[in-house]
Amino acid sequence: MATKPTVLVTRTLPNAVEDRLAKDYNVRLNPDDTLYSPDELIELAHGADAILPCHTEHFTHDVVQRLPDRLKIVANFSVGVDHCDLEAFRKRGIIVTNTPDVLSDATAEIAILLMLGAARRAGEGEQMMRDGSWCDWSPSFMVGNAITGKRLGIIGMGRVGLVVAKRARGFEMEIHYFNRNRLSETNEQGAIYHDSIEGLLAISDILSLNCPASPETANLLSAERIAQLPDGAIIINTARGALVDESALVDALRSGKIASSGLDVYRTEPGGNREIATLPNTFLLPHIGSANMETRDAMGFRALDNLDAYFSGREPKDRVA
Ligand code: DGY
Question: What is the C-alpha to C-alpha distance for residues 321 and 159, in angstroms, rounded to an integer?
Fold first, then answer.
């Protein structure tokens, strides 16, 4: 590269990623890791050839319209791109990339953690140990549900869904799935395909959401669909909060229709859903699906690979717009 392109990096990235960035680019880092407002983001983007953002920056239609003409590529540090109005980017001719593959294992780990935590009431137990309220033991104390041998329904058998299925087989779970397209027999590994979400819901003792958020999947888990799950089912979400009607989930958790739920993602982030947080039959994490050191390095390097490809005249591997 003759003159180094300028890259605006919106959040603090792992050291190894920032070091590699500094070698090849003029970088505008965010050492305080503050969340930029849309106006600040647009202001800081002036003079930049690329932005390396996270899902915390919302590129709405209005924001994309106001981005400077010089900007050529937005290389996301995320697999999800629901924070980006891709159509608006296409119209502006700005390339958008994401970071698939590298976070599938990490996210599947969290899905299994949520499954166990929700089924075995880990949140309630942990709270009790911390506030000193554990004062008895009896055969009826803190009785939860087993996950071993249960039917796991996966909506979205993409990269993450496949790893969730693989890990769940370790618990002898029977794997069922719904996906836009049926997988090959080799990829199915014995998983049972359902050609409708309704068909899958009816047999899911535990339901795991693993599909991306998009206009088509918004509110996918509605009150009507929750009602189709078996009584006492467990709902796990490591994908995006927008997939779930959270008030319907609250009602179902209150009535006992849904035994418990393990959630890493919410409609409102950061913060989550205060009503859900008051329910004891939930096991809740703050959107940490990809939060381990190995994965965060790999996400950064993948975003850099996309930038390097673009600035060397090649097609970025993970182009989504
Ligand atoms: C992703 O990569 O989409 C994760 O949710 C973190 O942003």
Answer: 20
Task: Give, in degrees to the nearest 5, the angle at Cα 288 between 286 and 127.
Answer: 50
Judge whether residue 12 has pLDDT over 80: yes
Q: How far apart are the C-alpha atoms of 66 and 38, rounded to whole Å?
A: 10
**Which tens digits make up the pLDDT trace of 37-56?**
999 999 999 999 999 999 99
Distance 180 CA to ligand 1 centre (A): 21
In this structure, the residue with its CA closest to atom 2 of ligand 1 is 78
Percent of the chain as helix, strand, coil, to the nearest 5: 35, 15, 45
Residues recognised as catalytic = 240, 269, 287
In 117-241, beta strands by DSSP E: 151-155, 174-178, 192-193, 206-209, 233-237
Residue 224's pLDDT is 98
Assign 295 to helix, strand or coil: helix
Q: Is the CB of 290 under 6 A from ligand 1?
A: yes
What domains can be seen in the chain, in order of their start residue? 6-102+293-311 (3.40.50.720), 104-284 (3.40.50.720)
Residue 99: band (very low, low, confident or very high) from pLDDT cuts 50, 70, 90? very high
Identify the residue whose C-alpha is closest to ligand 1 atom 3: 80
Query: What CA–CA distance (Å, rounded) separates 25 from 13?
Result: 15
pLDDT tier, 107 (very low <50, low <70, confident <90, very high otherwise) = very high
Atom of ligand 1 nearest to the CA of 240: 5
Please tell me whether the overall predicted TM-score, pTM, comes out greater than 0.70 for this model: yes
A 10 A CB-CB count for 136 gives 5
| pLDDT 10s digits, 184-228 | 999 999 999 999 999 999 999 999 999 999 999 999 999 999 999
> Taking the alpha carbons of 255, 260, 265, 270 in that order, is the dihedral positive or negative?
positive
